[in-house]
Design goal:
mainly beta
Length: 246
């Protein structure tokens, strides 16, 4: 019995075996990811200020809104050079606002809570930079859905008033759509695992005014709405994702 062995160059072996070793296709690839991000919002405080009616003075705290995002998403590569990205961020905005209403010797303190989620969709062009590194850039939009809740008031007799996101009424929710430009890079840590870092630039400023609203039926100031805060959404949000590809 005779046996013969032939040495093959490693590079030739890799080329011939490549179709059988690729776990993730270059086209029609799908990636599921965890997303985290951070943006710096700003606000303008118009208090302390004097108000008409039973509560003559209001002061709001100076704590800033937090745009620390977390969520999940999916990426789809219909072509090697084209990427569609969809994400849901249930934690996209958090802002706790403290208030102090006074009338004479009486005082009422409260905390008001603004929370929000967002859905983002973007279309991106992809450019390979190295074997395991690629850049992407594109256009997209972020739809924010924000809720506002007034906490339990401490202190008696000072005020029936609350904060509202709606002028002339009790506003609980609002939505806003923000277009953005995206630029980032992704490193393929393994065939199926990718780590991306990218930024979203929002060219159009988005802001929201917070009012003092008097919901007490029959009061002399029922329906009163006075602007007390103005919140501005971030111009840039920095993001990172960890993806699993199929």
């Amino acid at each position: 019995i005779a046996a013969a062995f032939e040495d093959l160059p490693a590079k030739l072996f890799e080329e011939e075996a490549k179709p059988y070793l690729v776990l993730v296709p270059e086209e029609q690839a799908i990636g599921l990811y965890l997303a985290f991000g951070f943006g710096k919002g700003s606000f303008q405080n118009f208090t302390p200020r004097i108000l008409p009616g039973p509560s003559t003075f209001v002061t709001l705290g100076d704590n800033a809104p937090h745009f620390v995002t977390a969520g999940i998403g999916v990426r789809y590569f219909p072509k090697r050079w084209f990427l569609v990205d969809l994400a849901w961020l249930p934690a996209a905005l958090k802002w706790d606002i403290s208030s102090d209403f006074t009338s004479g010797a009486t005082e009422a303190k409260n905390t008001h809570f603004m929370t929000g989620e967002s859905f983002t969709l973007s279309a991106n062009l992809v450019q390979p930079l190295a074997t395991s590194l690629r850049a992407f850039a594109g256009l997209g939009g972020a739809l924010y859905s924000v809720g506002f809740e007034n906490g339990t008031q401490s202190g008696l007799g000072a005020s029936d008033r609350e904060l509202s996101t709606k002028q002339g009424g009790r506003g609980a929710k609002f939505s806003t759509l923000r277009p953005f430009l995206r630029l980032g890079t992704e490193w393929k840590l393994q065939s199926r695992i990718g780590w991306a870092v990218f930024g979203d630039l929002f060219p159009f400023q988005s802001k929201r005014t917070i009012y003092v609203h008097d919901p007490a039926p029959g009061s002399s100031t029922e329906g009163l709405s006075e602007p007390v805060l103005e919140m501005k959404f971030p111009t840039v949000i920095f993001n990172t994702t960890l993806s699993l590809y199929f």
